Amino acid sequence: MTSIRASSEATEATPPGASPLEAAASRLMDLVTATLVDGIPVLVCDRAGRIVLANDALHTVLNRSKNELLNQSYSDVCIDLALDELFEDMEKSPAVTSRWSGYITLKTGERETQMMSATISALRDATGSPSHCVVVINDASGGGIRRIPTKGTALQRPGNYDGDYAEAILNSLPGVFYHFDDNFKLVRWNQNFEKISGYTANELLGAEPKMFCVEEQRELVYSRIREVMEIGESTVESDFLRKDGKRIPYLFTGTRFERHGRVGFVGVGNDLSTRKRIEEALRVETARFEAQVESSVDGILVVDENFVKVIQNQRLAEQWKIPHHIAANPDNAVQLEYAASNTTRPDEFIAKVHWLMAHPNEVSSDEIELRDGTVLDRYSAPVLDREGNYYGRTWIHRDITARKQSEQRIRHLASHDGLTGLCNRNVVQERIANAIDTAQPGRRIALLYLDLDRFKIINDGYGHPFGDEVLKATAKRLQSLVLPQDTVARYGGDEFLILLTDLDSAADAHGIAKRIVAGLDGPLIVNQRSVHLSGTVGASIFPDDAETADELIGNADAAMYRAKELGRNTFQFYSRELGEEAMRRVDLETRLRVAIQNGRLSLAYQPKVSLKSGAIVGCEALVRWHDPELGHIAPDRFIPVAEESGLIISIGDWVLRAACAQARAWLDKGLRPICVAVNVSARQLLQQDFAVVVLRCLAETGLPPELLEIELTETLIASDTERAAETFGCLSASGVKLSIDDFGTGYSSLSYLQNFRVDTLKIDKSFIAKMLSDSGNAAIVRAAISLGHNLQFKVLAEGVETLEQCRFLAEIGCDEVQGYFFSKPVPSTEFEALLSMRDAQAQQLV
Ligand SMILES: Nc1nc2c(ncn2[C@@H]2O[C@H](COP(=O)(O)O[C@H]3[C@@H](O)[C@H](n4cnc5c(=O)[nH]c(N)nc54)O[C@@H]3COP(=O)(O)O)[C@@H](O)[C@H]2O)c(=O)[nH]1
């Protein structure tokens, strides 16, 4: 038999004892088997057309035994192939074109033929001449009947000794196929290898792996090849270096491939470009996602269906103050326990988490309060995968503490007084209504209406910032005087409501009202200035006095007015009469306003008489009001209303001007100089420019200052001693006189007297009225006279109604008297007459 060679396998060793042809055929069979095309019918015939080799698969296809085939003529098997012509063709193309592909008709039975696709390759002798041909039946499983002669295009290169079926498989691979021999030389490859690498078959044959490797990856690639050789298989991700220098990311596999004791490897390489692009896109996307998750202001946690952490950002740990070792613990239950212990309601928190994990479809939004006051808005929703299957759950926690606090502030502002922080008008009204609605039978509700005494004076006199501080201090003091469950509210400027609920009886309210009045009464230091604070309280009781919140408030208000009338710094409970009185008060204020506008006020003058000479030494101007309907209205009634309403300022201005003008008129008439005294209310005194008002009035009326006397009460001086001293220092320097009115009834400390250039002490008429019947009063009168004289003041007794009183006062050294005994306050004309008459009688009196 002619020796043959399979050119691509020239270097392979021939198994001992085997003929070259058998060896080649054997190799071919091995290769067919190795490339997973076992069962392909193959026959080999010589140039004479004699079958020299046929495999089992062929026997099966042709339904003949091995003996029936061997040494038979080729034409007995294949009826339509001109083998001679084929050998001639092969002869003409010695090296490369050594194969024919097409359809042949096989005799598959006695009377049966079948057309099948086949590939015929040449086996050449030492001279390169085709000595045998190998026929590989490609579609033995049956099928094609068309005869489609095709030119051999695939694997028409040296060394392509396997069948078309194997070739088709290898060529249909999406990646590159390679077979490196035991010297790591490329001996076989598929079409894709050439196409992708850009090398020709000749260039590829015998090429080493490094030809397709970039320098920096060679070490890696060869280490994997070594692995293949040692272990049997391996993979490597490295670049496939093309002929043009381009590199393509590839995943190469390697499987050790051994034949006839020679061990190489085969494998496939697949382009990873797309995968890499996807991976890169995924990486970028993941990085972006992670950046978003990390930069989120929310604490984010994603868990799978088993509550295993999938994503958790740093913010979550910060929000929940989870230490690193717990946050890093993969067991999410540990973190859950820790987080729960930070909440104000741990059991509820854990129960909700478990419930949501057990109900995958639920979306939840709620608020969690941590023990340090942080409030988190927790949103939880299911996470679904691409196919819409439940994957796990996301938990997003937003810190809404600031929002909650500002909502709380807004709610507080809406319901509380901005200055004092007490409940405001609306809230206290609601609470009163609510208390009435829920009152238990037999129980009492008391509403105390408190008005600060002389607050308007303080506020106008010292300015509003100072007044604000007084109100704040008052609020604090009031809260300290009641129980936490009682409501203290600011109802208006200097008005406060105190709601007391669930009382046993009205007597309880009496005790509390008394305590509040006493607790408020005293000096208050504000901005290093001491002011004397006091308050007046009116109270009404549910259900005794009122049925609704408005009625209860209105009645407590009326009671408070009544208490003011009774002298302030006290409390008064509501009665039906008080309600009527409140109505009258409103009516009076309206009428007074009209009276001022219409000039319905007048002055009466009451003489002051010297006990030594019996002569009139001055007079006190007293305001009078005659209402067209109500007739004469006493100052005792309308002055308090004027003070409360602020009308006292315009009344006071008018009195001052009218009195000065009258005294000037008397001078102008030729009467002897008479000093006229006017009463000044606290409000007037605390006007910023009271001294200026007085001096301007004197200048404008032309009255000499020494003919004007200002009467101040002790209480008024005590309300702001500094201001009074300052104002009267200025007026005294100008010559205006000062007398202390109602002496003995007001301020307990007498030290203030040292700060004033007082001309006259006027002993209050209450002492004069009782001095002859009560030794105590007599003692007070004596003491007052003594004190006044010691301080170089004149002393005048008010309210002198009898001769006895006059004589007694003269005996104990009183300087002057004023009272009905000499004259009631009279109009100016009468006073003029009185003056003339008195001057005439003066000598007879004493
Ligand atoms: N701020 C101002 N207050 C004023 C003014 N005019 C009056 N008043 C104050 O009103 C109170 C009541 O005053 P009035 O009704 O005028 O009573 C005065 C006298 O009539 C009364 N008086 C005088 N002598 C007697 C008497 O012998 N017995 C007796 N029962 N009453 C008598 O006393 C009042 C004067 O008191 P006083 O002022 O304390 O000297 C009263 O407080 C007035 O001050 C005003 O223009 N501005």
UniProtKB/TrEMBL annotation:
It comes from Hyphomicrobium sulfonivorans. Residues 443-576 form the GGDEF domain. Pfam families: EAL, GGDEF, PAS_9. It comes from the Bacteria. It catalyses: 3',3'-c-di-GMP + H2O = 5'-phosphoguanylyl(3'->5')guanosine + H(+). The lineage of its organism: Bacteria, Pseudomonadati, Pseudomonadota, Alphaproteobacteria, Hyphomicrobiales. SUPFAM superfamilies: EAL domain-like, Nucleotide cyclase, PYP-like sensor domain (PAS domain). Residues 162-232 form the PAS domain. Residues 585-839 form the EAL domain. GO terms for molecular function: cyclic-guanylate-specific phosphodiesterase activity. This is Diguanylate cyclase/phosphodiesterase (GGDEF & EAL domains) with PAS/PAC sensor(S). GO terms for biological process: cellular response to nitric oxide. Residues 234-284, 361-412 form the PAC domain.
